[in-house]
Amino acid sequence: MSQTEEGVFLLRPRTLFHFPPVDVCCHTCDNMCTGRCSRCIAVTLYPLALISIICNIVLFFPDANTKYAKDGHITEEVKYMGGLVGGGIMVLLPALYIHLTGKQGCCGNRCGMFLSIAFAAVGVAGALYNLSVAALGLKNGPLCKVLLIWSTPFKDSDYLTDDTWWVKCTEPRNIVQFNTGLFGTLLACGCLQLVLCAIQMINGLFGCLCGTCSKKTII
Asked: Which pTM value belongs to this model?
């Protein structure tokens, strides 16, 4: 109700429901700072991808010797290149793009955040591949020389909890510890990469709907 200059009171129509402006909703979402979150995720993915690549390459040279790779006496799961391709390239490339969405420019906008969802999905696929190969490598155990025969003596066994059987492998030296340590590292990296890329998919969705937290969001 309001009063005019003549002193006559007029009734002001009221609505039953009051919806806040769209800008207010998006401002609330912007406070989540999706751009900054993208940068943090990308910076964390970089070392994880690098570690995965290094671990996969090192796995080709047990006992720091190249002869096993030349003779083909390498654990089968190493040849799948889960760390090099999955946890490495398939995570590193999305990480580079995700990093760009956290900056002002061609990718730091709603369209860029939408595309980051697809890139993050590629990272999820790579992380899953890395994780699966590493888990399979730990489960089957290393290829090693038992007496005069090259085989995988620990396949379908609980060798990880019973190290008394590790002496069965006479060559390469300390191959069980070597494979277990590197495949275990790849498994941990794959798990972290999977979680981070999944978070970026959710973050990208919010960024697509409401924009990044940059001072000037380019639509």
From this structure: 0.79
